[in-house]
Amino acid sequence: MVATVLIHEKNGAGETDTDKTSGTIRYRSNDSAATDASNPIDIPGAGEQMSYEKWLRLSVTVAPDNNITNVEAYTDGANGMGTGVAAYYRVVGSYATPAEPADNDGLTDLFSATSGSPIDLEVTNTGPFTGTGDIADYLVTTLGVSSTATQGNTGSETLTFAYDES
Amino acid sequence: MTKADFSTHPLNFDIDQSNRVATGFLGTVRVIEERGRLFQRRAVKLDLSGGSTTTDTVLIAELDGVKVYVHGADIVITRHELKL
Question: What is the predicted ipTM?
């Protein structure tokens, strides 16, 4: 059987799942999987305003014939989100309620993760993964908006999740 | 059905339980030797700005460190790790 693997956004203290596999991820100033224009990220007068975190994790709803391994994430390596907008990540093994970081300390530039140097999502929760349910680690991403940003939506960017299936 | 359901992807292969025979729209790929294997590399590409999600997949035959990547009619033989 071909595995079905979804990308879930996790929200709230109860780790509520929202399937974002074919949907939109909207960075906001609150913890919500909603994609409306409410709770935008304010452009600061100085410094960097962080968005609330987006906690993303793969979830298997139809198990593979054998297993899933080599779970990774990467970008194209070029920040196309526009002037004054940065994206960061960290990899976490256990869930915590999404928060708004005070700054980017301890975070890594998301666009430093490329197909040649991808994010390893099996640091804590390691495969091979054989059944259904959540697999691998959480990818926690955050936007950082500086005073040089312009109002409106960011430019287009793609985040790739990849895995091997047998 | 979500876009990450690879069962209907045109480049998907069905791999048998031995992991050495894969059958897809373009034909059949076989790894004869027992120490070889077949697997598929999947990619789900999320558009962070709200555009559509896309998927891609490649069949990989691996034998003694050499990999054959079968991506439609495009076939690459290398020892390198190639990503989608």
Answer: 0.91
